[in-house]
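In this supplementary section we document a worked example of the pipeline. Step one takes a protein sequence of length 144 as its only input; no multiple sequence alignment statistics are reported here. Step two produces a three-dimensional model, which step three serialises into structure tokens for compact storage. The input and output of this example are shown verbatim.
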Amino acid sequence: MSREIKPPLSQAAPTTALTPPSLDQIDALARQAIETIPAALAAHVTGVVIRVEDFVDTATMRAMGLRSPLDLLGLYHGTPIPGKSVSYAQSHIDMIFLYRRPILEHWLRTGEALDAIVRHVLIHEIGHHFGFSDDDMARIERAD
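The serialised model returned by step three reads:
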């Protein structure tokens, strides 16, 4: 008789073989993280779709010059807010992709809490929605 063991998602990476968190579990962590992001970011992300997939797609991987699908934890796809104006005609939905397998690899490699990793990646990608630099996003996270 075997039993599925699921690790607590807010703890460090497991040291034994356990069932990895599913796409739905990562999505749930992202939804929880949205509730905790700094107010300066939260006010403008209501129309952004968050999508969790196992890996980045091949076309995006090639376009970004990635050598491995494990090289990307998340991606903002859309037009950053600074590129929009009152007359801007949006031709697509702004989306944030979270890539489950690279996130899990990072979790296992670093031992960081999975919910903290998901939150960090989410904030980073939301920052791209605002057109922020990596330094800007690090400052926002430190101030939080």
